Amino acid sequence: MNVFSEAILKSLELIFLLDNELFDILLLSFKVSFIALFVSCLIGFPIGAFLAISKFKFKNIFVAILNALMGLPPVVVGLVVYLYLSRSGPLGFLGILYTPTAMIIAQSILIIPIVASLSCQILEDLDNQYRDLFLSFSITKRTSILGYIVDARFSLFTVILAGFGRAVSEVGAVIIVGGNIDHLTRVMTTAIALETSKGELSLAMALGIILLIISLSVNFFVMWIKANGKTKGYV
Amino acid sequence: MIYFLKIIIIICYYNYSANANDQIIIQSTTSTKNSGLYNYILPMIKKELGFNVRVVAVGTGAAIKNVRNCDGDVLLVHSKKREKKIVTDGFAYKRHDLMYNDFVLIGPSIDPAGVNKLKSIVDSFKIISRKKILFVSRGDESGTHNKEQAIWRQSGINPKEYSGKWYLETGSGMGGTINIAIGKGGYTLTDRATWIKFGNKQDFKIHIQNDKLLINQYGIMLINKLKCPRVKETLGSLFVNWMISKKGQKAINSYKINGKQLFFANAK
């Protein structure tokens, strides 16, 4: 029995029959990942931009810490978020453990360092090029940051994609804080883990193939935006 | 700073409704979930009692730990000693027997240890250890792991001494452990329900079954409001009482896969 060929057939079957349950799981996967990504951009870009243009004594240490945090182990983040959100924990009164919100929080913690650190790198390079020019026009820091962001928007797309990749493929944190509850907190990765543990290897593999196809389409879409933007001469 | 606080407050309120008062959370062992019992029973409960039951299936050891953090309204596991402990510690109200099935010893069909002729699980553990044939253990303080340890104690062997040699502790759930046992061609102890429903059996089969020692008793209990003030006591007790009522017990008995009954209700 060949798991791979069976998995490919099964994934096609799932896609073309528009399996309802699969659709729910996919939708939640993307909902959680996109919201986490959005939140991380709202928090990560300002941090990155601030670090890029400011000069202070221990800046390098901050940047090094941020870079190290890019490699945060998801299970550790999951555990910490669990301990905080647990009914006996300090934020237990919110009652959001085992909900998508908890998963969004955990994923945001994982992605913020990626967004902040990579965008810091990109903006810092631009700042090195244009700082003196902008200074000579007495342009404020805030305006120059906006200028850098507009200029670097395509590179920043890549940053967003890196964050998205981390969010959508992550399993360790969301399985702890989400609990992999059917129709509530089950996402693609935790569903794959569950099917593997049930010995349904070809179904697990089929879900993996679908996840891969969809991440690929997201990436193609972003590439298309980039290519389109560039040929229209906005850069 | 205010900017960040705003963001945090917004995400905290997002989906707040998902934790509404029309649902309870059970901290559960994995076998009841992987065998499909919940998918069979929970729709009935939704229909009769009118609320949703959410299942966190993590294995007995982890479920009990989560209950000690008050994360759950009902506990459904299979390790009598530790269930009694959590009741005496005040985290749960009275423990009820719910149902039972049994554990089985599975291994490769060629039977490298030659336990197939035996009747007793203790004897077969002795032979496996004497011949140093691979044995894969859950190693995660789950109900199944507790049972396995009890059998090792009876056979007078301390397999921990051989951990990493012929005795492998996976620290994973039942399914993950069976996958490893199959991959490495070793024996493992599993509950019958998980094994019947398991999809990746390959050439493995049951070698030892129907030993009195292998009875697998499940218990159910409501989390105690005195220790955990946010427990949804009313809904939780409705759920527990339904499960041990005649109706619930009948529902458990009527769950079958390929004509085989997986759980035998025995609430008093």
Which architecture of chain A does the CATH hierarchy give at level 2? Orthogonal Bundle
Q: Which secondary-structure class do the elements of chain A indicate? A: mainly alpha
One letter per element, helices H and strands E, the order of chain A comes to HHHHHHHHHH
Largest interface: A-B, 34 and 37 residues
Q: What's the story with the biggest beta sheet of chain A?
A: none
How many DSSP E strands of chain A?
Answer: 0
Radius of gyration of CA atoms of chain B, rounded to a whole number: 20 Å
How much helical structure, as a percent, in the residues of chain A? over 70%
Span between termini of chain A? 53 Å
CATH C-level name of chain A: Mainly Alpha
Percent of sequence in beta strands of chain A: under 5%
Q: Report the CATH topology name of chain A.
A: MetI-like fold
Total number of β-strand segments of chain B?
A: 12
Distinct helical segment count of chain B: 11
Helix content of chain B: 40-55%
Relevant CATH superfamily of the largest domain in chain B? Periplasmic binding protein-like II
Order of helix and strand elements from N to C terminus of chain B: HEHHEHEHEHEHEHEHEEHHEEE
Q: Which range does the strand content of chain B fall in?
A: 15-25%
Poorly predicted parts of chain B? none
Indicate how many domains the architecture of chain B comprises: 2
